[in-house]
Amino acid sequence: MDNLLSEGLTLMVFGMGFVFTFLTLLVVVTTYMSKLVVKYEPAAQPKATSSRPTPTVAVQQGSDELVAVISAAVHKYRS
């Protein structure tokens, strides 16, 4: 029985060591690849946007309609 417990602990240590090594290697490689992509990727050009947002009437009407539909659904659910 002592031999079986010893083999189980050995297997656990090797398994956890393998997983730890693999995850460490994965983090290092991912970090290196990220730095490599940032270095060689051309900078993205930002899109020109207006300085102030302009709400549209359709969005406001859609919001009012949505509130009405939700209110009707809640009223029907409660009754």
TrEMBL record:
Name of the protein described by the UniProt record: Probable oxaloacetate decarboxylase gamma chain
Task performed by this protein: Catalyzes the decarboxylation of oxaloacetate coupled to Na(+) translocation.
Matching NCBIfam families: oadG_fam
GO function terms (MF aspect): decarboxylation-driven active transmembrane transporter activity; oxaloacetate decarboxylase activity; sodium ion transmembrane transporter activity
Catalytic activity: oxaloacetate + 2 Na(+)(in) + H(+) = pyruvate + 2 Na(+)(out) + CO2
BP GO terms, sorted: sodium ion export across plasma membrane
Cofactor: Na(+)
UniProt keywords, alphabetically: Cell membrane, Ion transport, Membrane, Sodium, Sodium transport, Translocase, Transmembrane, Transmembrane helix, Transport
HAMAP family listed in its UniProt record: OadG
Gene Ontology CC entries for this record: plasma membrane
Membrane-spanning segments: 12-33
E.C. number(s) listed in UniProt: 7.2.4.2
Entry's family note: Belongs to the OadG family.
Pfam family, one: OAD_gamma
Broad class of where this protein is predominantly found: membrane
Description of how the protein assembles with itself and partners: Heterotrimer of an alpha, a beta and a gamma subunit.
Chain's gene name: oadG
Location relative to the cell: Cell membrane
Membrane topology: Single-pass membrane protein
